[in-house]
Design goal:
By secondary structure, the protein is an alpha/beta fold. The chain has helices at 12-23, 36-39, 61-67, 83-88, 90-110, 112-117, 150-154, 185-204, 230-239, 259-268, 287-298, 323-329, 337-348, 357-367, and strands at residues 3-7, 27-32, 52-55, 73-76, 120-126, 134-137, 141-143, 170-172, 208-213, 215-217, 253-258, 275-279, 284-286. Helix 5 (90-110) runs parallel beside helix 8 (185-204), helix 9 (230-239) crosses helix 11 (287-298) and helix 11 crosses helix 13 (337-348). 45% of the residues are buried.
Length: 371
Amino acid sequence: MSKVLVTGGMGFIGSHTVDSLIADGYDVVVLDNMERQVHQGKKPDYLNKKAKYILGDIRFQKDWLKALKGVEFVIHLAASVGVGQSYWEARKYTGVNIVGTATLFELLTREDALRKQIRRIVVASSKSLYGEGAYRCKEHGLRYPQQRTVEQLRSHDWEVKCGVCGGPTEAAPVPEEKPPQNLNPYALSKYATELLTLDYSFALGIPAVEFRYFNVYGPRQSLSNPYTGVLAIFLSRLKNGNRPVVFEDGKQLRDFIYVGDVARTNVTALEKGEGVYNLGTGRPASLLELISMINNEIGTSIQPEVPGEFRPGDNRHDFADTTRLLRDFSPRRFTGLSEGVRQLTEWSARQKSVDRFAAAETLRKKYIPAR
């Protein structure tokens, strides 16, 4: 029975990945620091009892050494997550995401026996590194525009223009070849995680897969963490009778992928693929559509608040080009958004949800004001 280490395996994506691994017959060990912001100091009740759990920090070699005993595969998911918070906690984000990953590879470089036992590494990257998405101009074809200017956004002109002619564009799927823009510290830290993995994979001869996750959602997503995914934030607001706050005009397109699909793909990557892949569905939905869908599922009719503000680090549209993913990991059947939202809301009915969005916004505006 092959042994797999899952870092961050107590968390949202990690715990589903652990379940999928154990269902497939793998022996699983988890390294997790039980981040208080996510778990509020309590061990989750959904943890799979067949896995071994080690409380530790990926920034410390001693914890990696303890967790890597007898391990053949590593699925490295542990990270500090959230765009806004990364601005005022940049040292934490770079420390956990970059230094934590570098610590693993430095250890494998120095420990010859350890390096030889590792057969493959799977790493969580993020679509955030792209910055703006991909767009098509009728005259100039596929374009990768720069970040919208403050002047444009202040005039509430939200849509992206062609960088050549200044004309209108239409959102297009984002391919892996799009140059990264890294519009916030979180994105930069995930890109560094990805590059470290690619560099050391080549240098050490260990095959590696780097998944650029799009917007992952589903059961076990924290409903009390204001820096989690937007779907869970909206759900928490609605469950507490509060209006979801939408920046710009709410027509931004995002690619939402169900956590079970992500977990299964993480496990498949132990046997398939190599290099960088988008992990999304390729099927976009707007934020306003998403709020309407959640309202319908939980029986509310709370309209969103659209103050017309924008935030540094936000992009307009993005959704995955899945060509490379489907080529190397086919067949893939993605859970439809309506079905995934139904499963999330059914699970959420049994969960406590503390709406901390307003407090998080107060903190954000203290450091990074909306403009």
